[in-house]
Design a protein that fits this description.
Elements lengths: L1 E5 L10 E7 L11 H13 L9 E4 L8 E8 L6 H17 L4 E5 L6 H14 L20 E5 L3 H22 L7 H15 L2 E5 L1 H6 L3 H7 L7 E7 L8 E12 L8 H4 L7 H16 L4 E11 L11 E3 L5 E3 L7 H14 L4 E6 L3 H7 L4 E4 L3 H14 L3 E3 L5 H4 L9 E2 L7 H10 L8 E5 L5 E2 L9 E2 L4 H12 L1
Length: about 475
């Protein structure tokens, strides 16, 4: 989709549709099309009793002699508006345009769009128009609908470009997360990372199962050894040109399919386990954005990729595994495999002595129970690191909520009688004890944030700028955080 600013008159636009964004009870924006057209459209809205309530869309098939479809998108009350108002409205409108097979549109906003609003609009359209149709056959004479071009009247060019980069990076994460396990297994995920590195121009190192064992990444290896698709460790490195303003390590959970292992999941819980690699996919999306934005930061991405399957060589309950940092893990449940693989990646991240470690993982059902499906969990012993991520998420429009990690009685639930740490702490406080487990593999003194995105990684029904399927939730928050660091 081509997204650009437009400086001409509304009547002279070559776009096939006019799309007005209107605050509730404020029709002034309609006059952007001229006094006569604005008055006609205003009367049509009054007749339809359209007031501009949030999320409501009014459509007029033709407007005088302009031969353009006209849409009016409600933003709700101005006093309650934010960048997210424009982002979510743009997502809703993008789906409406696709449904109506409208290939291009001029957007007219009720205020001159600054960099932030322009970015939000571009994000909303790119994200809202997304669909995963790779394995669907087009009907004869009816190709899949696509929006080819969007123009924003008096839009901020740099803001629009930033928004497009942010959203397309998130859509990459969606594409990868939506791929099924028979297409993306651990070697397949490594291949996708390698292709991305070649396209974006950063370094890529991949370790096979032998190198993984030689490098003492035995936690990752044990989880993946029960599958016919062997585990892989992926390390991507982005090095900036010029002054470097920091060193960040991103860690992503890369379980390409999770059957639960020997503690096998019931059938209804095994559906969509292709999405257990979403953390890794988010990290790859962020790396794309870092390269496109040319950030003055050294950024590394670490992914332990494995498939958790039952078999004669699978790891077992009661097994004791030594992770790369030397700590031993007693296996209570093989379905708590993500944190085991992350142990080795976090150990390597700590060895790199970065300024910050951020990990993304579809880690616990407990986080879904605690926060629902529209808010992700944030865990960190570092107040500043946690606050910085929360602030970035507010700009990005992605909800994160910080949960506590200072309950020492709860920490006792992951104590083992036979090893340094137990891989589960029971149902009570399960998301917190999972974060506490991960903390065992982060070197003290390094700022670290764990983001549990289990509840927000996919949706069954589309809304705002979220499609059916994988969301790529977290990409824009991380990119916004890195942009903030770069200032």
């Amino acid at each position: 989709m081509k997204i650009s600013d437009y400086r001409g008159s509304v009547k002279d636009s070559s776009m096939k549709a006019l799309c007005f964004f209107m605050f509730e009870e404020e029709k002034d924006v309609l006059q952007s099309a001229g006094q006569e057209i604005g008055s006609i459209l205003g009367r049509a809205l009054s007749k339809a009793e359209f007031k501009g309530k949030k999320g409501k869309i009014f459509k007029l098939p033709s407007l005088e002699d302009m031969e353009k479809v006209t849409y009016v998108m409600g933003l709700g009350e101005r006093r309650k508006s934010s960048s997210e108002s424009f982002r979510s409205a743009s997502g809703d409108l993008a789906r409406e345009l696709k449904k109506d097979r409208v290939p291009s549109a001029l957007l007219i906003l009720p205020q001159e769009p600054d960099a932030r609003v322009s970015s939000a609009v571009a994000e909303g359209f790119e994200l809202g128009s997304y669909s995963f149709t790779r394995y669907m056959k087009e009907k004869e004479g009816e190709p899949f609908a696509e929006i080819e071009a969007i123009q924003v009247l008096d839009g901020h060019a740099e803001g629009l470009e930033k928004g497009k980069i942010m959203a397309c990076s998130q859509n990459l994460a969606r594409d990868l997360a939506n791929e099924p396990g028979n297409v993306i297994d651990p070697p397949g995920l490594a291949q996708k990372a390698s292709e991305l590195s070649q396209e974006m121009g950063f370094e890529c190192e991949i370790w096979d199962e032998k190198r993984i064992q030689n490098e003492r990444m035995l936690a990752l290896w044990h989880v993946g050894k029960g599958s016919s698709s062997p585990p892989r460790f992926i390390h991507l490195s982005y090095m900036p040109t010029g002054e470097k303003k920091g060193k960040i390590v991103l860690v992503g959970k890369g379980i390409t399919f999770d059957s639960g292992g020997l503690n096998i999941k019931p059938g209804e819980h095994m559906r969509n386990m292709k999405g257990d690699k979403t953390g890794a996919c988010v990290v790859l999306g962020v790396m794309r954005g870092v390269a496109k934005l040319k950030l003055p930061l050294e950024v590394h991405a670490l992914i332990g990729a494995a498939e958790n399957m039952p078999g004669g060589s699978s790891y077992r309950p009661d097994d004791i595994i030594r992770a790369r940092n030397g700590k031993t893990i007693e296996v209570d449940n093989t379905d708590a495999e993500g944190r085991v693989t992350l142990a080795d990646s976090l150990s390597i991240a700590s060895e790199m002595s970065p300024d910050m470690i951020i990990d993304f993982a579809t880690l616990t059902g407990a986080c879904v129970i605690a926060l629902g499906n529209y808010t992700a969990g944030l865990f960190s012993p570092d107040d500043k690191a946690a606050a910085d991520i929360v602030n970035a998420s507010g700009v990005a429009g992605e909800r994160f909520w910080r949960l506590p990690m200072d309950d020492e009685k709860l920490r006792e639930q992951i104590k083992s009688s036979y090893a340094d740490v137990l891989n589960t702490g029971g149902r009570g406080g399960g998301a917190i004890t999972a974060a506490m487990f991960l903390q065992e593999f982060v070197k003290e003194g390094i700022p670290w944030v764990h983001l549990d995105i289990a509840g927000v990684d996919h949706y069954k029904k589309p809304f705002w700028y979220y499609p059916e399927g994988a969301t790529g939730f977290g990409v824009r928050t991380c990119l916004q955080y890195l942009l903030d660091l770069s200032e």
